[in-house]
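quick one
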Amino acid sequence: MVDLRGAAAFLKERLGGDPFPVALVLGSGLGGLIDAVEHPLSRAVSFDEVEGFPASGFAGHSGRWVGGMLEGRRVLVQAGRYHLYEGHPLDVVCAPVRLAAALGARTLVLTNASGGIRPGFAPGTLMLLENHLDLMTRSALDYAPGGMPSAAGLWDDRLLGIASSCAAELGIPLERGVYAGMRGPSYETPAEIRMLSRLGADVVGMSTVPEAIAARELGLHCLGLSLVTNHAAGIVSAPLAHADVIEAGKKAAPALGRLLRAIVRSLPE
Ligand code: HPA
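structure w/ hypoxanthine:
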């Protein structure tokens, strides 16, 4: 079990005690926006500096937080995250969200990289999560033992509206659809993608769902934004590689950055 109280106390000491009403999680290849944070309150704090938090990420690049200002709002920005496919248990995967809540977050923006399933969802497509398929965890009871939480309304309607308006104003095409969360670690087979398509999935990824469920349990308002970095398996014939995911993330980063900043600016106080 992660010691959340100790972790929150440690981060408060590093980032100052004032609350961060907005938390932003930047997914694979999307971490660049962390450098846009103004007046950072300390150098970045990596996950593994916090007692009980393991390192995470490829190539020794651990997830990290920066607290500061973005578009005039106090934000806690997290680049990188824990994944079930790295072998982390659910409580570790969800710990950063619980930590953000302990630091005052009321709004959580979760971004991720995904494979495009819906016809026309080519690499570079941006999609708001209107809904998800939880194919990663067995039961919401894994999060809130004893409760019977509802995932209805998890993806906040008001935030969806704000995000769509921001995209329209900026002239950035922004789709809406269903995110299928898979455990990984391997990319799906073409048969699995056909299955997911029939189940109603528009994109597929390996994150976000557990964090959103934990956030919901804590009463946070969630917005999910997915960048399609590749065609899902079998949609086109090219094989998938993690490097393509990172590359597509880099390419789309400027538009995604502008959109995220506009969303942060437009959030209700
Ligand atoms: N499948 C699962 N996760 C992913 C993909 C994919 O095609 N692309 C980026 N994350």
